[in-house]
Specification:
The structure holds two protein chains of two kinds. Chain A has helices spanning 17-25, 45-53, 66-76, 93-104, 123-133, 153-162, 182-185, 247-262, 267-283, 308-319, 351-365, and strands at residues 2-3, 60-63, 83-88, 108-113, 137-141, 166-170, 189-193, 205-209, 287-288, 298-302, 321-322, 324-326, 340-344. Chain A is an alpha/beta fold. Chain A folds into two domains: 2-12 and 266-365, Alpha-Beta Complex (Aspartate Aminotransferase, domain 1); 17-261, Type I PLP-dependent aspartate aminotransferase-like (Major domain) (Aspartate Aminotransferase, domain 2, 3-Layer(aba) Sandwich), CATH 3.40.640.10. Chain A has a seven-stranded mixed sheet with strand order 2-8-7-6-5-3-4, sandwiched between helices. In chain A, α1 (17-25) packs antiparallel against α8, α2 packs across α8 and α10 (308-319) crosses α11. Chain A starts with a strand and ends with a helix. By secondary structure, chain B is of the alpha+beta class. Chain B has one domain (5-100): TATA-Binding Protein. In chain B, 28% of the residues lie in helices and 31% in strands. Chain B has helices at residues 29-35, 80-100, and strands at residues 5-8, 18-22, 39-44, 51-56, 61-65, 70-74. In chain B, β5 and β6 form a beta hairpin. The chains are: A alpha/beta, B alpha+beta. The interface between A and B is medium-sized, with 20 and 22 residues.
Chain lengths: 367, 101
């Protein structure tokens, strides 16, 4: 099987990840705040994530996924009724749906800025929107999950901050691929996931929260400390981490982070494979979203003959090629009506696999 | 007794009306030949596993791979019940005729 659906969830995982999950399940739990264990041993995923993000350990909230982190940020933000949010039309439903809920409850209003054909927001449009709406919060994806185009997070954050807006970045598609640097950017919150390009298990993710920004907890409950208080503690990240966490999966993510640290990505590898895949798509008579500049390893294509749903099924059933067909949960990014077939590579994708995909696309369209 | 199981497929297409049909036996040439009486059939036999696509006059699209035990059908959103019933009745009749042969 050829697996090219890494923008949804990665496979294979980093070497050592599965073993770390198994070991965590076979070892007595070490949560010092919820047992009489006197010493924490084993992984410290939070510290590894903080190192990755260039922030303090206490700035990283562990969550089950990016969606949970984005909801924690958006639903817990200290809104004033009537606040305005500016975001883009390339956002994932994990941003759009919480915003819609907040609007439905009468808490906020929000504006979705159009994006360029490749899914990237134009800096001058963003700057103009900041000046026009003076939002309380600006939200943007670091990279479009539907096209792979990477936004200039530093510049977008700078423009939003210039009008006093707080900034939330969705780094679901970039964490593990390119630097995600909230402190350097000046971003207030960054949500990410562990199971995509960090090559960790599903059920892992997180939210960076800038020191000094207090979010209201969306979920409340046991923290293992300050149990005599009615409210969640102010202390971060405990404030936003009610209940027992997914220790085993975070042990796996810690292993994958160590692997990534010891085995840095080679962007040239991706670029070469992406170029070959685009050539093959073009040769088959198909079209694809052209992305210039910084990008993630995605090619989103469509066929002049087959609907993307059927093309995806052909690839899976007849050629054992797994990708994703559809709108990719980014329904307001109108790149292609009817959706695309999205091929998303990983660091383990080979030239032989890309050649096999190109051959399959040629075979499908050469009848 | 039903000769196939049917299950709605959830996907992210707007107004998707796609269903999966599962059979006790693998899809073979004869079954696909029988289905071809319902519409325009194309079979890509050059593929590693041949893929068939049947387009019905009402816009329904039936497809799958020979040798598999499932196929999928997408029905037009505006008349999904009528289109689905027509296809399932025809499919049941074809399978029943095979059993009595």
């Amino acid at each position: 099987m050829i697996y090219l659906n890494n923008a949804a969830t990665s496979f294979p995982k980093a070497p050592g990840t599965a073993q770390a999950v198994a070991m965590a399940l076979e070892t007595p739990p070490q949560d010092v705040s919820r047992s009489t264990a006197s010493e924490r041993t084993g992984h410290d995923c939070r510290a590894l994530l903080a190192e990755w993000l260039g922030c303090g350990r206490g700035d990283v909230v562990l969550t089950p996924n990016a969606t949970f982190g984005l909801n924690t940020a958006l639903l817990g933000f200290p809104w004033n009724r009537g606040d305005v949010v500016v975001t883009t039309r390339a956002e994932h439903n994990s941003v759009l749906r919480p915003l819609y809920q907040l609007k439905k409850r009468g808490v906020i209003d929000y504006v979705e800025l159009p994006v360029q054909p490749d899914g990237r927001v134009a800096l001058h449009d963003w700057k103009a929107a900041m000046a026009k709406y003076k939002p309380r919060l600006a939200v943007f994806t670091h990279a479009s999950n539907a096209s792979g185009a990477v936004n200039d997070a530093r510049a977008l954050t700078r423009e939003a901050s210039a009008v006093g807006a707080s900034v939330l970045v969705d780094a679901s598609q970039t964490m593990g691929l390119i630097p995600v640097a909230p402190v350097e950017w000046g971003a207030d919150m960054v949500a990410f996931t562990g199971h995509k390009y960090l090559l960790g298990p599903t059920g892992t993710g997180g939210l960076y929260v800038r020191k000094g920004l207090t979010l209201e907890p969306v979920f409340t409950g046991g923290t293992g400390v300050r149990s005599d208080e009615d409210d969640m503690p102010l202390e971060m990240p405990l404030r936003l981490e009610a209940g027992t966490g997914n220790e085993a999966s975070f042990a796996g993510l810690a292993a994958s982070l160590r692997y990534a640290r010891e085995n840095p990505l080679e962007p040239a590898h991706f670029l070469r494979l992406l170029s070959g895949l685009e050539e093959g798509i073009h040769r088959a008579g198909m079209e694809y979203i052209e992305v210039r500049g910084p990008r993630t390893p995605i090619v989103a294509a469509w066929s002049p003959v087959y609907r993307s749903e059927i093309l995806g099924e052909m690839l899976a059933l007849s050629f054992d090629i797994i990708c994703r067909a559809g709108l990719h949960c980014a329904p307001h990014y109108p790149a292609v009506q009817g959706g695309t077939v999205r091929f998303s590579l990983s660091r383990f994708t080979t030239e032989e696999e890309i050649e096999a995909v190109c051959d399959a696309l040629w075979a499908i369209h050469s009848d | 007794m039903s000769c196939f199981d049917v299950e709605k497929i959830e996907n992210c297409y707007a107004h998707s009306q796609t269903y999966a049909y599962a059979f006790a036996v693998a899809l073979d040439d004869r079954l696909v030949d029988n289905l071809s009486t319902l519409g325009e059939l194309t079979i890509n036999r050059k593929f590693r596993r041949p893929f068939f696509l049947l387009k019905l006059a009402d816009g329904a699209e039936i497809r799958g791979a020979l040798g598999d035990d499932r196929m999928k059908a997408s029905f037009p959103d505006e008349r999904v019940d009528e289109s689905k019933r027509f296809f399932e009745d025809a499919l049941a009749a074809i399978l029943a005729a095979r059993e009595t042969e």
